[in-house]
Description:
Strand content: 25-35%
Order of helices and strands: EHEEHE
Helix content: 25-40%
CATH topology: Alpha-Beta Plaits
CATH class: Alpha Beta
Strand order of the largest sheet: 2-3-1-4
Distance between the termini: 12 Å
Shape: globular
Structural class: alpha+beta
Number of strands: 4
CATH architecture: 2-Layer Sandwich
Amino acid sequence: xxxxxxxxxxxxxxxxxxxxxxxxxxxxxxxxxxxxxxxxxxxxxxxxxxxxxxxxxxxxxxxxxxxxxxxxxx
Length: 74
């Protein structure tokens, strides 16, 4: 069973910038509405698998991108 994490953003534009940068990184992700159990000022979040956490953080850092928080699925 895959466990997912959710990356939230302060605005839709930040979510779109991260999505654009990740298209060429080979990381499996999906942009989805923020789950009700997570509060965020933006309505979108990035869902990704636990095993992609380090690759995702490296891509974020390399591209100087901004995110709000990362939530772990329980």
